[in-house]
Amino acid sequence: xxxxxxxxxxxxxxxxxPVRVLLRYLVIxxxxxxxxxxxxxxxxxxxxxxxxxMLVYTLGTPAGLSEVIVKMIPLLFTSIxxxxxxxxxxxxxxxxxxxxxxxxxxxxxALAFPQLPAWILLPMMVAAGLAGGAIWAFIPVFLRARxxxxxxxxxLLMNYVAPTIVSFFVYGPWRARGTASAPQTVDFAEAAxxxxxxxxxxxxxxxxxxxxLAAYWYVMKYTRWGLEMRAVGGNQQAAxxxxxxxxxxxxxxxxxxxxxxxxxxxxxxxxxxxxxxxNFSPGFGFTGxxxxxxxxxxPIGILLMSFVIAMITSGGDILQLKQGLPFAVLNILLxxxxxxxxAKPTLFERKKA
Amino acid sequence: MKLSSDPGLSxxxxxxxxxxISKQFPTVLANDxxxxxxxxxxxxxxxxxNGAGKSTLMKILYGFYRADxxxxxxHGEPVSIRSPxxxxxxQIGMVFQNLNLIPAMTIAENIxxxxxxxxxxxQPQKIHERIxxxxxxxxxxxxxxxxxxxxxxGEQQKVEIxxxxxxxxxxxxxxxxTRVLAPHEIESLFRILDNLRNDGYSFILITxxxxxxxxxxxxITVLRSGWVVETLCAEEATEERLIALMFDKEISTHIIxxxxxxxxxxxxxxxxxGVSTRGEGxxxxxxxIDLVIFPGEIVGIAxxxxxxxxELGDVVLGMERIVTGHKLLFGRDCTHRSIADIRxxxxxxxxxxxxxxxxxxxxxxxxxxxxxxxxxYARYGGLRVDWQAVRLDMETALGKFGxxxxxxxxxxxxxxxxxxxxxxxxxxxxxxxxxIASYLTSGLDVQSVMVARQALQQARRDGAGVLLISEDLExxxxxxxxLIVLYGGKVVGHFKPAETDSYTVGHLMTGSKAQDxxxxxxxx
Lengths: 353, 524
Hints:
The complex is a heterodimer.
Chain A: H1 2-14, H2 17-42, H3 47-59, H4 62-87, H5 95-112, H6 118-145, H7 151-171, H8 205-222, H9 224-234, H10 236-241, H11 246-273, H12 284-295, H13 299-323, H14 329-352
Chain B: E1 16-24, E2 29-38, E3 43-47, H1 54-61, E4 69-74, E5 77-79, H2 84-89, E6 92-95, H3 107-114, H4 124-138, H5 153-166, E7 171-175, H6 183-198, E8 202-207, H7 210-216, E9 219-224, E10 227-233, H8 239-246, E11 270-276, E12 289-293, E13 298-302, H9 309-317, E14 324-329, E15 332-333, H10 339-344, E16 347-350, H11 354-357, H12 365-370, H13 374-377, E17 378-379, E18 384-385, H14 387-401, H15 416-428, E19 434-438, H16 446-461, E20 465-470, H17 473-479, E21 482-487, E22 490-495, H18 502-509
Parallel strand pairs in B: 3-8, 3-9, 6-7, 7-8, 13-20, 13-21, 16-19, 19-20
Antiparallel strand pairs in B: 1-2, 1-4, 4-5, 9-10, 11-12, 11-14, 14-15, 17-18, 21-22
């Protein structure tokens, strides 16, 4: 009997949620940075100095920190865009494409109604961004719900279609005449720009992203829909037999996910660029997929991971400048992080035993 | 043969000796200092109710689990079995409950896959010869070139046994081998086991069917909550004695048929009119099924698995699409209604495999209890779930049966029998009007079987209709008011239990007797 209660205590201690989650990520990044340091050292650089530079210039200065947060905003959106469909067992590799189409819809709205005041135009752009992403996600999930095509393939392939559609508009009908040699639309009206805070580039998208993250957490944890979605993802057959409308949930989860990715595109062009450019996203959608993988869909994990990944990507610029390292070195760090996460199960099991 | 230097540890002459095996799972002590000896040329039955630790012990022997304490001896030599490969190395083989053959391959290919000494380029002819050698000798007749997908469950089981024999196993562990077999198939399986035993093969039979044990075991070890109550020889065993060993107190295994079916009202609960389906892949297609269930009656569906009874249950639930024909529920046409609507109308479903078909393994027991009825517990339009109400319903539902589970453990940590109990309790809650019960008592121990059957009879007295799908003829005969036999997706027989016997039904089930004039598709 004593053994029984002891085991139980041990389990509940491990389950002490936030602390455990934090500890887990600390271990993951600790190991990842150590391995990264070894690689830097092998490359003949000074690892401690490099990592110190990276941390100091991103987290140590207000300007650096604000840039990290700016980079984090779209990742917050795209990782939720992957996490939500993942709850019902769908693999959404298409956040990148959904982001582009969302941005395109939002840009179209901004260009069509330049005279409208911000309090009308911005909500319209948000709605357009949501709709664009949702439409782009609907195509693959509809085919999937009909049992026709696997959504992993279609969402992935549609990523290559979306930017070309954007390019079509930017090179064609929407291209700004005259001055700019680079293809892009005209600058949006001031009313079409998301307001920024404290003289930095941090914009309202941060608040929207955090609100969506909180909503995602609440819906999954407390609502009937969250319960049913987890059931669909946990055992599709049982969920169906238990009378849960699983096709509805598949379509809904994917479309809402796509809509959130579309919002990422909207917030990028409205909050940062102020115009639509082709290839304006450096793979936010794919990074979102990575973040969801790393955090396993856990809301705290998404927040932490988005921040850390944003920090690593900003750190890349610093390494380039201070250490003369190529930017691609960051891919090594990201890859190592992924490896550590994948190796995690054995790592932690060994600890338990 | 080498003998152990320490006779206190391992028995003389034993093929396998397990000594002091203990295994602790997070919430339960599955094996508590278990000792077990298996001798060459014996059939050893491992008997016990659900959760008694039979499967765990065998999984330790077959290398799936590592014991926390204890030793295993092979011919008196201590061995460490860390994986099924290790187990096979010392000539132990296991036939699982759900047979593990690849349907798209032939028998010979399936067997060849399993052989460890298979050369990179192998000669199918040699494999065929070896199969034929064994199959002739022991009555395991199969054609090595047949596709597994065309075999009945009984034949697949033979292939599994052949597979182990060809890979030189001397000790075969059979997990509930008779669960899916028709009566005459069970008899032929036992004859095969007898033959093999006479040639020195040993068997461990995991079971909780008393009849099987008394029919074929040489020695019987009874487990109760993880420890060995007693090991006895077949001659000393009687049904009463074994039940007394399995449970603390003796219980009656009698089934009392309480009263006749409730007053048959004119309005049937369920009516299937000429329902046909199109089965995909290995699934069976139903062929113009007519079926009526009235309130207060239990309609039993007999058939060897794979003859359409799963599909029949799914058709009623709405899982399987009806191609032609009509389905009327409570007088309304529900041919193409969704599962959600049908469940909401008062239909419950107890599937044959609760883990994969009824529960979400990574959810808690409480969450699983809420899944069929989320609309009932949703508050503020779904923004909140009233877990207090779920908890209350769960406790009443479980209380009715005398079951109890901790609400916050993961469903997947429950044993198969407990999961089945949980699902029975869930599906019986909220007074269902029509219950589809598929293999209701598979995996349940004697005591729970009684409770589950009583629950069905209670539901029947309360005016519910029951569609009872089973391969256990005894159960069907004991419970059903009417009995329908399915073969190849068709109704081939329709009886009142009193008007027939298990041999007639058994022959119809296996298609060995043609459809006869017993069919009067509607009793009224």
